[in-house]
Amino acid sequence: MDLPFIVATLTRRGLLTPGRPVRIASQLNALRKWGWSLAGELRQAAARDPGRTAVIDEDGVELTYQDLLERAERMARSMRAGLGVQAGDRIGVLCRNHHGLIETIVAATLLGVDAVLVNTGLSAAQLGTVAEEQRLRLLVHDDEFADRVLGLPAELPRLDERAREELVAGALPGELHPPERDGRIIVLTSGTTGAPKGARRPTPNGFGPLVSIIDRIPLHTRDRVLIAAPIFHTWGFAALQVCFALRATIVLHRRFDPAATLAALVQHRCDALFAVPVMVQRLLEVPPPDPLPSLKVVAVSGSALPGGLASAFMDVYGDVIYNLYGSTEVSWASIAAPADLRKAPTTAGRPPHGTRLEILDDDGEPVAGGRVGRIFVGNEMLFEGYTSGGSRETRDGLLDTGDLGRLNADGLLFVDGRADDMIVSGGENVFPSEVEDLLAQLPQVREAAVIGVPDPEYGQRLAAFLALHPGETLDPEAVREYVRHYLARFSVPRDVIFVKYLPRNATGKVLSRELRRYYG
């Protein structure tokens, strides 16, 4: 990425403002010694703004950047001296969003330890599989998961919240030096269709990844940011990285509650919110506060925006939605700004600076404009492969996202869904996402999901699962007629099933495998 662009973007976002020379020198020295790992980012923030509030938990705990760094260092020293954790080990982190989660991840990176961010929605059996496959040396978990970890091997040490606090409080004096190897962050893929896989996240090697994001999403130094997206997810972790780089004040709640989130946005005068789309939908289902929060940015990612959601939210809270399309494997691919979403509410936007995006056919050749193909992406933060040893197909430095999509005449990207979600019904290719977006626009529908199911005559057929707003009703044939009016006949769902809610994982993605259980 070219230096003039980096300097211009950092200046616009307030990162190159003058400050006390001693603190600036200490900040730069921290980055020189520790790099752009999470530990390095926290050290630079504590060097430049030691007394600035770094984290505010929902229970009222507030920690400055200096407090947060000292607690993470104490935990790192205790893990090394008391538990024998050392560079190259892997520890599991099974925590919701609170300061203890952040301290644990930073402590791991201080030691050169890999931190496996465990999805809080995993079952006990899945957790056991993750512990075995990732060869965990230690598991740090919130108290609420005590029952879920009972079945893990007895030889795997476990730290609940009290034990973690005892490590912090009882740390022996000592000094930490940059480890010989960088500790990697291992994010588990969403596992909506099968067992989650561990994806090794690279450590940034400069300002490029940060600049790619904040050039398109107008976040500024010392903003106040509520991270509602789970930090164990790629999007929530990316939010944490950006906040450290910007020396922002981070507001955290363990669980997402729409009314409590709106109240916190107002109480803490938040400038930005990081969320997943289903959270934005839930915010619209509760009365807006008076006054409204003074949000400049609502950054969403993690799953597709349902049709009309962006426009409906911006009609209430202003033109503040920024939709980032990406994945655990490619980090980011494109970003849609409010103007893009006003023009085309389901667009995934355009690639940010320094990102290459191409739509290719099965032979690796570019497809014509407007045609559907496989989405390939290249940027500075492509993952380093799965911990199992596998990877994804690459072509000319671009990584296969596993999604299908198209570019319109204005260069806007539209994602049609996962390649393995496309169904062939009677010889016709059908994308469930197109039908979902249409059904979501029905005023009676709270949320919709469409999947392919086996059919003896056509090979596959569409099944629509609809959760309605309280007190609303719909007739299945009326739903089919509605789709028939707007889409081709092969896009009409043969089955229309009404459910109380859609099964989702902790990041808000619909669990297709759970819906298929309706068919045995």
UniProtKB/TrEMBL annotation:
Pfam (any one): AMP-binding_C
InterPro entries: AMP-bd_C, AMP-bd_C_sf, AMP-binding_CS, AMP-dep_synth/lig_dom, ANL_N_sf
UniProt xrefs under SUPFAM superfamilies: Acetyl-CoA synthetase-like (SSF56801)
Domain AMP-binding enzyme C-terminal: 434-509
Domain AMP-dependent synthetase/ligase: 43-386
Keywords: Ligase
PANTHER family, A to Z: ACYL-COA SYNTHETASE, MEDIUM-CHAIN ACYL-COA LIGASE ACSF2, MITOCHONDRIAL
Recorded family membership: Belongs to the ATP-dependent AMP-binding enzyme family.
Protein name: AMP-binding protein
